[in-house]
């Protein structure tokens, strides 16, 4: 476990982990948005990689991916972008969120080496379930990267025990079935699921998928150690797209006040 | 769940339990004599199986070389081999107590097959179809609605089959607890490739026994099938893989494998993950999946079933590619000589058989899987003729 | 050559010798075991017979009353019972040494069947089709051309089936010495009605043995078929006429038999001569033949096979008429409940069966001849839906 | 055999029997055309009845039928038209050319009574071959009408013998296969056919179908006793349609000179 993860683990806050898409709407914007998020109190950052076929994502993140693709953003550049973030002073753990096919084409080994060198802290591959992740798991350990595990309310009990006890970085608990996206209601019995997930977990348990308001976020404090917000933030970035390209300073200001409005008071 | 390195289950954790549940249910079902008898009975009584093995006398004679036999999947209910698998999966869904099915479709053939079995077995049905395909295939959309299915317009990505499949998977992730995902080809995460093969292998087993009856116990000298996702081909090849019979899979070369417009996944693709399975696919060097092209909507898929990727790598099956033009020419020859209007997909297999037959002896025999009928393609053929003239 | 007063050969003297020659050749052929075996083999290997007898479980249940079985002629090659007769007549033409066939067609279904067998047996083929029908059925025209047939535009009269038939007869009169006229329904001068019945009776005989197998030797409690010219009906009825089985022929009532827009020849017609045969037909009091109307192109004929006129007069068969609307409704019900999109023609038979079933007991059984598939009708259905909304 | 047939039979001319369509382009025109034809030397007249489905006729006569139908001409009116022709002085035999269905609807008996009363001499039913004509044959005899028989080059020998020996009025020999219409060539072996037809025939043998020029007509003199011209004359009437309706006198003059140009010199 590296230093950044140690800080993350030992935080007593209700941990805020935002997701943004690399290259949306351009590389420089991604850098400034990342820094702004850290300034707003983010404890870690998920950086998505644009992909032609993001089958775990809803429409908001799909569109962000299209914008990223239009910028010729790819996995290699996303990893290298983390170097730049580190140069610009980003301190929080950064997790690369990538579909498996992108990893395969770049080469798993090449990716891991590059990620390690660039200051990446973790990898999350939404279409690589535990059963298929043996090799990558092993290689991540060798490269000091956390392979983030996702667990879902549909995950069988014995598997949940195993995944939660072996989790590194944090354990990603999917709050509702379906793809990423904004939701107005959550699944009944979610608290029991989170409780079970926490039982054997040595790392913070974060809840994600569908959270878009302060009220929704606050409802999971207590049952989880932190939360992930993706689509809601990406949607705000979409709204700010043209300003982010031409009047970035103003846009970042608006963005930060949006993030502040989202966060529970006590997490800041 | 692997064919060499290919196959696997590259899907979100949320649906992993459903794949396990499916595999267990499937394995139990195919061990169950009653289920198998029901499946065989439905194939016979509902879809009209066995389909005949028709000798193409005039076509073979005018072509020269080996004789060509046609396995007539075009005579199935709804006009193609697709129904075999749809019946099998629907019976499994019923057995598992599922009330809802979802399916993806490109040109609409699998969508119609899925909507058909949903109507037949009293299931609700949602079919995911790209916006672009909905526009091009208005008749099939109407048919699905007539059958009581809901057709969901997919506006993501390139708005075609690949994206419809992504969207069907997304829906499955959301509704996995009570929904059966009826995949239309030998693709997708394990156990789908295994399951689709199981439900399609009736093609090959019927062919084997029909051919043996005609040719006094001999096996064919070659077996040819077209390959998009590869379900008709894997079903046709199934009984022959372990035997000494040369097998040929025919991909769509579109405007030519040397151009950017083809669907020749095995000839030109590389290893990657698509729709839950590690296989060969058409992609950029960075891993973005590219849009394939073929005049035939059913071959127009950037991936291929993982078992085909394996049979290709081990060289057990020879995969060749045939252009739009060659397929059209073969379709016309078959029409004029045998009175059979085959699907553009199947025409690729016919085209390759004609080449192959010329290199073989007069007393040798090729069996071609005529996977579907061409009624659905008449519009495309007309447009092509008009464009070409 | 008579069925009571009906039938006969009302044709120009020029072709009388050809009808005699045809009758002799036909009578010899059906006495010839080899010919019959060839015919049966071609039906099996080329067209996929036997077609199944499918129990319509969900449809029967939701309707109430008797169970409905469907004789699946829709699963034949080219999608309807038409091919049975086309194969039979083409084999006879080959046996008689004829190299040319001609045929009439309305919507194009028989034209496609004729062009199909011409391609299969290496005959040249001219299809006569009304100008108006050519415009409406461009897809079928294209199919016939793909099959190598020449489609002759008929501009006389009302430019529809009736006139195409007149024109085919005119051509036959001119080319009678080397041309075989392949009539598509159980109409025309003797021996055509006899011949078409002979080649279509496979429908009834298969049904009888399939039903007996399912129901332990019993016969159905009712048999229903749609009637335009009447070939599927006469083929279906053939084995039952001499037995104690109620038979029902269903005509097209179009917009209603009380309107001017229907094709209910038996219900509303009178004795007269059309296309070489004395039968019932729709005509003015002065004897001018009128244009019939039905949403279904295959029932849209002003005459009817002479044996049906006889079976109507002797009351051996009950003939009823079903409107466009009733047929459409039945088509949808069959689609939604059984996953079978039947032809609009067949939908008339289904519609009447649903009425009949309600008046019968739960343990009784109706067999309906599903004469063809509805793919060809999707355009019409769409137009109707749009118009209706 | 009535008087008119006797004159026809005993003529030593090469007999000219024209065909026109009743009601084409109007009833009065039919009357005047009939009288003009007699004046030009016609030995008998065939009067066609408009029918919706004239399957023995080619396009020219089909169109004439459409014009007749548009005038509401029908079988009954056509028969009554013959009365008017007789009143106007027509002396030659008139044969009603009608499809069988029209006869059936009017009623065979009713038709025959009416025809006899109206001065009709014969009936020709192109779609009622010998085999189906027993009843009508018998009834025609009772009503002093000749049922005109057609024989074709495809008629079998024994049937030809029977038809030609039983023929009344005249025997109609079809010169070529196919429907009525103008032809440029005739069938080889036609002379042998005509010779065979004449052998047993007690009435004149006329040749018809396809004759449209003086040269064609002359070629059959010798092998036959007369000729029928239909489509060529009907086509001329079609050309003269508007004049026949509005400027009839002039039209009839033109028509007569056309007929004269058609006839062999010696037949006038």
Automatic annotation (TrEMBL), chains A, D:
The active site is at 46 (proton acceptor), 57 (proton acceptor). It is an enzyme of class 4 (lyase). Keywords: Amino-acid biosynthesis, Aromatic amino acid biosynthesis, Lyase, Tryptophan biosynthesis. It catalyses: (1S,2R)-1-C-(indol-3-yl)glycerol 3-phosphate + L-serine = D-glyceraldehyde 3-phosphate + L-tryptophan + H2O. The keyword Lyase applies. InterPro entries: Aldolase_TIM, RibuloseP-bd_barrel, Trp_synthase_alpha_AS, Trp_synthase_suA. One of its GO terms (molecular function) is tryptophan synthase activity. Pathway: Amino-acid biosynthesis; L-tryptophan biosynthesis; L-tryptophan from chorismate: step 5/5. PROSITE patterns: TRP_SYNTHASE_ALPHA. Pfam families: Trp_syntA. Its EC number is 4.2.1.20. NCBIfam families: trpA. The alpha subunit is responsible for the aldol cleavage of indoleglycerol phosphate to indole and glyceraldehyde 3-phosphate. Belongs to the TrpA family. Tetramer of two alpha and two beta chains. HAMAP family: Trp_synth_alpha. This is Tryptophan synthase alpha chain. It comes from Fictibacillus nanhaiensis. The gene is trpA.
């Amino acid at each position: 476990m590296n230093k950044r993860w140690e800080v993350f683990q030992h935080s007593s806050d209700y941990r805020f982990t935002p997701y943004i898409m690399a290259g949306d709407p351009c590389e420089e914007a991604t850098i400034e948005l990342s820094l702004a998020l850290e300034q707003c109190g983010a404890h870690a950052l998920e950086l998505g990689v644009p992909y032609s076929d993001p089958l775990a994502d809803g429409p908001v993140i799909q569109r962000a991916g299209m914008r990223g693709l239009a910028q010729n953003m790819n996995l290699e550049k996303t990893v290298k972008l983390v170097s730049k973030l580190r140069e610009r002073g980003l301190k929080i753990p950064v997790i690369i969120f990538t579909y498996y096919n992108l990893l395969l084409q770049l080469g798993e080994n090449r990716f891991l080496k590059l990620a390690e060198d660039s200051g990446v802290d973790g990898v999350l591959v939404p279409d690589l379930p535990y059963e298929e992740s043996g090799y990558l798991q092993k290689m991540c350990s060798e490269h000091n990267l956390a392979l983030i595990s996702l667990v879902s309310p549909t995950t069988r009990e014995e598997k949940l025990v195993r995944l939660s006890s072996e989790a590194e970085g944090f354990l990603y608990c999917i709050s509702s079935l379906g793809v990423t996206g904004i939701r107005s209601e959550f699944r009944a019995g979610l608290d029991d699921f989170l409780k079970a997930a926490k039982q054997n977990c040595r790392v913070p348990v974060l809840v994600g998928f569908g959270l878009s308001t302060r009220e929704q976020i606050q409802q999971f404090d207590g049952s989880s150690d932190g939360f992930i917000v993706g689509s809601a933030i990406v949607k705000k970035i979409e709204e700010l797209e043209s300003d982010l390209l031409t009047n970035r300073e103003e846009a970042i200001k608006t963005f930060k006040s949006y993030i502040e409005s989202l966060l529970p008071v006590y997490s800041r | 769940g692997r064919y060499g390195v290919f196959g696997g289950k590259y899907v979100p954790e949320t649906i992993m339990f459903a794949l396990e549940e499916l595999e267990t249910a499937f394995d139990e079902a195919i061990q169950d004599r009653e289920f198998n008898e029901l499946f065989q009975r439905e194939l016979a009584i509902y879809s009209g199986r066995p389909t005949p093995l028709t000798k193409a006398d005039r076509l073979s004679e005018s072509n020269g070389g080996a004789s060509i036999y046609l396995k007539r999947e075009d005579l199935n209910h709804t006009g193609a081999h697709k129904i075999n698998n749809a019946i099998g999966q629907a019976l499994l869904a019923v057995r598992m107590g599922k009330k809802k099915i979802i399916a993806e479709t490109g040109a609409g053939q699998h969508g119609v097959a899925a909507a058909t079995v949903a109507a037949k077995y009293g299931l609700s049905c949602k079919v995911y179809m790209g916006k672009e395909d909905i526009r091009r295939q208005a008749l099939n959309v109407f048919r699905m609605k007539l059958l009581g299915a809901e057709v969901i317009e997919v506006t993501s990505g390139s708005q075609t089959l690949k994206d419809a499949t992504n969207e069907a998977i997304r829906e499955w992730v959301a509704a996995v607890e009570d929904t059966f995902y009826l995949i239309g080809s030998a693709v997708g995460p394990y156990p789908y490739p295994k399951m689709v093969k199981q439900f399609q292998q009736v093609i090959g087993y019927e062919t084997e026994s029909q051919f043996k009856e005609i040719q006094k116990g001999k096996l064919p000298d070659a077996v040819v099938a077209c390959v998009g996702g590869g379900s008709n081909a894997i079903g046709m090849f199934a009984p022959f893989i372990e035997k000494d019979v040369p097998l040929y899979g025919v991909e769509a070369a579109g405007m030519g494998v040397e151009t950017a417009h083809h669907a020749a996944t095995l000839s030109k693709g590389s290893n990657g993950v698509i729709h839950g399975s590690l296989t060969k696919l058409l992609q950029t060097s960075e891993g973005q999946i590219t849009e394939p092209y073929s005049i035939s909507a059913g071959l127009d898929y950037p991936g291929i079933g993982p078992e085909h990727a394996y049979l290709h790598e081990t060289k057990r099956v020879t995969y060749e590619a045939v252009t739009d033009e060659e397929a059209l020419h073969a379709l016309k020859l078959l029409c004029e000589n045998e009175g059979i209007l085959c699907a553009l997909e199947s025409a690729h297999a016919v085209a390759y058989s004609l080449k192959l037959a010329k290199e073989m002896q007069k007393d040798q025999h090729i069996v071609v899987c005529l996977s579907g009928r061409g009624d659905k393609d008449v519009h495309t053929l007309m447009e092509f003729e008009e464009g070409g003239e």
